[in-house]
């Protein structure tokens, strides 16, 4: 019938009912019955907690991204409100792809259905439905053989991804941290490839210090780490070093870290209490953890102390690589080196950056002899925010050849490997290609002698580097960001010297940092002008 056809077309045009309620999904809700910082969808967070948030770590929550149309939960913060408030919106999101799923009408694929257990009553029916090689004539053998040949998830390979909690045999690797207050919470998981450093307050009692788990080394190393998620391969956490701290703050590194030092009460003091833990995880390029180590700081607690401060840190390093030191997080810190590197050769587009030997931008380092030829290879790192100048003297004789001399001076000024890019932030990673600023190289020529001869040549005499940076982010806590770097080589014309004559030329290298931030100034043009005449004795007795 016509009405039936029209109804079918109307059902096809209408969006299907959502299977997943995105308003109840929250991928950043990691702590049980506790509010996760900056997790705007966490149902455990109150309005007071939201007022302390700085941003929403997960601003949009959706279901299946392959659906043609679905609901999306959007979270944001109203920072203009006093106190700041969380804003929640439920919007319709349309998938622009022509290859999308209109309706998930296969209901059985949405649930995990428990298989029916064969019994003497239903065996014949199951045999007719799942006949063939699936079942064997010997009931005692087919169950074991099939489990051995086709174990669950046998063809699926798991690997750690960025931010995924590092799993252990009992739960996950704990990195205690303050959640809302400054008190330690042991429910904070360590995320893979997420370098963290936390400090928190722990309440203690000297009489019961040997029974407080968080003060014992075993609490941090007794659970083995899973090499990959959902696997049986374990990686034990080894003790890398033990440092003992006295009551006055003096630290001593123990020669042996093989013996566990457990907390105990001695002469009214709680000794061997854990004051700090530093985890170091080594992984492969495929996301598999192959080594885990922990460095401890143990100390003594007096009986008058009701609480102590503990510090925790975790870092990740890929095998067969050296960790790259950072110069800020995220913005540069004044006095730390400016990070630099190169783009890989053979790539038609920026695919990543390789750091130079020291991962730093360097200039010529002055020496006591002030001899340019002797100073070749001596470099000093460019420190962010520090204007620097260095130089040397070059003694030129008539026997020197022009081209080798020019190349030598260029190597003295720029070094053997002058970088092509500079990191815009202090923590810019090599894979984040948009966080790297190309170095613009300019050449300026100066004419020392107006009537130059054919025997004259051009030699570089100075390198000037200008680093332009700006304040990025919030006005309360601005971050230093490099936006432009220009390296200018100045050359001069040198005339051929007569025999047995010498000339001394100064060679200089300099770095200048320029703040190009736009200050938040009021618009004075909007102020009305006042045109009045003051009395003649207004400033009496001053002129």
TrEMBL record:
Q: What UniProt keywords apply to this chain's record, in alphabetical order?
A: Cilium biogenesis/degradation, Glycoprotein, Signal
Where is each Tectonic-1-3 domain found?
Answer: 159-318, 328-515
This chain belongs to the protein called TECT1 protein
- Signal peptide stretch: none
Subunit relationships: Part of the tectonic-like complex (also named B9 complex).
Cellular component per GO, a single term: MKS complex
InterPro entries linked: TCTN1-3 (IPR040354), TCTN1-3_dom (IPR011677), TCTN1-3_N (IPR057724)
Biological process terms in GO annotation:
cilium assembly; protein localization to ciliary transition zone
Where does the record place the Tectonic-1-3 N-terminal domain?
A: 8-122
Keyword match Signal: yes
Q: Which family does the record claim for this protein? A: Belongs to the tectonic family.
């Amino acid at each position: 019938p016509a009405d039936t056809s029209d109804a079918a077309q109307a059902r096809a045009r209408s969006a299907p009912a959502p299977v997943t309620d995105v308003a109840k999904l929250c991928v950043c809700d990691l702590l049980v019955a506790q509010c996760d910082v900056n997790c705007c969808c966490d149902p455990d967070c109150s309005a007071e907690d939201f007022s302390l948030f700085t941003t929403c770590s997960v601003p949009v929550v959706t279901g299946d991204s392959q659906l043609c149309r679905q609901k999306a939960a959007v979270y944001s913060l109203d920072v203009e409100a006093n106190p700041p408030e969380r804003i929640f919106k439920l919007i319709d999101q349309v998938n622009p792809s022509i290859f999308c799923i209109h309706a998930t009408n296969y209901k059985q694929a949405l649930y995990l259905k428990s298989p029916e257990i064969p019994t003497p009553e239903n065996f014949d029916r199951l045999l007719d439905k799942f006949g063939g090689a699936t079942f064997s004539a010997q009931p005692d053998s087919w169950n074991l053989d099939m489990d051995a040949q086709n174990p669950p998830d046998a063809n699926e390979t798991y690997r750690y991804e960025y931010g995924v909690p590092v799993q252990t045999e009992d739960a996950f690797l704990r990195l205690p941290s303050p959640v809302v207050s400054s008190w330690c919470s042991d429910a904070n998981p360590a995320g893979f490839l997420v370098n963290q450093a936390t400090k928190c307050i722990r309440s203690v009692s000297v009489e019961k210090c040997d029974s407080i788990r968080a003060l014992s080394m075993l609490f941090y190393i007794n659970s083995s780490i899973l090499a990959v998620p959902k696997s049986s391969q374990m990686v034990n956490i080894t003790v890398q070093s033990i440092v003992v701290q006295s009551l006055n703050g003096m630290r001593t590194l123990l020669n042996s870290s093989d013996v566990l030092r457990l907390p105990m009460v001695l002469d009214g003091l709680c000794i061997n209490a854990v004051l700090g833990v530093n985890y170091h995880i080594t992984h492969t390029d495929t996301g598999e953890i192959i080594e885990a180590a922990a460095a401890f700081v143990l100390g003594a607690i007096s009986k008058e102390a009701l609480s102590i401060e503990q510090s925790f840190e975790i870092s990740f390093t890929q095998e067969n690589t050296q960790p790259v030191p950072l110069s800020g997080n995220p913005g540069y810190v004044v006095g730390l080196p400016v990070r630099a590197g190169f783009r890989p050769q053979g790539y038609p587009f920026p695919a990543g950056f390789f750091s130079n030997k020291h991962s730093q931008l360097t200039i010529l380092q002055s020496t006591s002899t002030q001899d340019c030829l002797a100073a070749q290879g001596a470099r000093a790192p460019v420190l962010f925010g520090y204007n620097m100048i260095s130089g040397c003297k070059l003694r030129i004789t008539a026997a020197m050849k022009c081209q080798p001399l020019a190349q030598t001076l260029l190597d003295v000024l720029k070094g053997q490997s002058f970088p092509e890019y500079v990191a815009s932030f202090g923590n810019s990673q090599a894979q984040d290609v948009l966080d790297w600023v190309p170095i613009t190289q300019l050449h300026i020529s100066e004419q020392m002698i107006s009537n130059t001869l054919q025997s004259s040549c051009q030699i570089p005499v100075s390198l000037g580097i200008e680093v332009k940076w700006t304040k990025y982010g919030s006005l309360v806590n601005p971050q230093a960001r490099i936006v432009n770097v220009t390296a200018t080589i100045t050359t001069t014309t040198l005339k051929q010297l007569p025999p047995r004559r010498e000339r001394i030329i100064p060679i200089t290298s300099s770095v200048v940092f320029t703040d190009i931030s736009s200050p938040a100034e009021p618009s004075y043009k909007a102020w009305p002008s006042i045109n009045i005449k003051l009395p003649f004795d207004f400033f009496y007795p001053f002129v």
